[in-house]
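Subject: Interface between my chains keeps coming out wrong

I've been trying for a while to get a sensible model of this assembly. When I model each chain on its own everything looks fine, but I need the whole thing in one frame so I can look at the contacts. Pasting all components below, labels as-is. Any help appreciated, I'm running out of ideas.
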Amino acid sequence: MSFPFYVNPEQMTQDKAEFARKGIARGKSIVTLEYSEGICMVAENPLKLHKLGEVYDRVGFAGVGKFSEFDRLRKMGVQWADVEGYRFSRDDVRGKALANLYSQIVGEEFTRSMKPFEVEIVVAEVGDPELLGHEDNALYRVGFDGTIQDTEHFCVIGGSVENLQSHMESNFSEGLPLGEAVALGRAALQRAENGSADLPPESLEVCVLDRGRPGRKFRRLSTDEVRGNLGT
Amino acid sequence: MRFWDGYKGSSFLELIQLEHPGLQPDLRQWYASLGSTVPTAHGTTCIGLRFADGAMMAADRLATMGYQVASREIEKVYATDMYSLMAIAGAAGPAIEMARLLGIQFEHHEKIEGEALELEGKANTLANLIKQNLPAAMQGLAVVPLFAGFDRRRRLGRVWKYEITGGRYEEQEFESVGSGSIFARESLKKSYRTQASRDAALRMAVEALTDASDEDRATGGVDLHRGIYPRVKTCTASGIEEVGDDEIAQVYQSVIESRRRPAAD
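Reply #2:
Try treating it as a single job with all components included. I did that and got this:
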């Protein structure tokens, strides 16, 4: 009878975390921030494979890291939300529940599997001033080990977030119009270590959760709209 | 929820069937035990027609249960997404559920794939739903909807009718289903003009519904003292719009006016 080698759990956790961090650092960052009419998500992504997506009426998704992994998570989120909305009602689909679900899935994979997910996720929920108890925006950040954070006003995910984070902290203010929010997101992305110093509108993926839209609040901005918003 | 081995397709209906069977009743057993004697609400007359800018759908607001009124204000024209409409006739319960499922299916596909289904694909999805409902239809719970929408690739409105087997037929001009449909169709046959303007199409639709409610007791007309008017929706390049009650009331008045008997001397 053979015994498996003993592995120190602390060592193993550290190794896995380092592995996941490396994987995430290879990709580009994403900035999610509040603006006057809702929530705006800005990603450096010139490709047609999207990193930002719609989950439900007021809930959006942003993912960095390994595409196959975060896109599967996005699709699972859509499946969960549509089933939940069908089973109960559209207002019962909440961002917090989805963020918790992601935290469970990603956390379990980190503990149980040899290779953890190399992903970081933001679940954004725009508030609805007409619905009692649903008025506030919410931004949840789920890390590669399943840690979940509830952030205020803005949220940055990706590899080298320190520069971006500090840029957002010193420049963010509440009630920014959309144009300024997109410009701020872009300015932050340009501070990334692996980003380029001058991001053209074609390399930006921008989506909004616009409180003023009826029903489904999510909208993807075309390159022309991004250019218009940046005023370039 | 399973991560890698869960359902990966883009169909909400399959997702429900495979992963959440509890959300769907076993239709065969359910309907077999229901029998055809249980009174259920039935929707009556719906119209779908093509006009210059797209497609229009109209329906009265009455649902009947045998000889009684089940609802005076039932909704029979549903926007299943930004560019498609479904009008229901027949057993109201399954039909409304079908419209709801269809809307979720279109939205689900759009979110999963990042692109909406083509209008033809949407029409086929509905055909499949109706096919699945066949055992219930044999028990008297038939759903016979109309489907219409704006085809964004071909830039035109399109209208489909269905039969209980899931058979799907595209109409070039107009179609009507429900108990008063014979009269509505006869009315449209006389009044229909191709490439009509929106206002002309609205007039044709209101006139046809007025004719249907005049001849068919199960079709609700305009309910003046409660202020209930037929529902009319258009689907064009700019999406779906609902025609306001005020406008329908005006058109209705002018239809009635044109048919008024001269006063006796």
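Reply #3:
Confirming on my end. Residues 31 and 156 of chain A are 5 Å apart (CA to CA).
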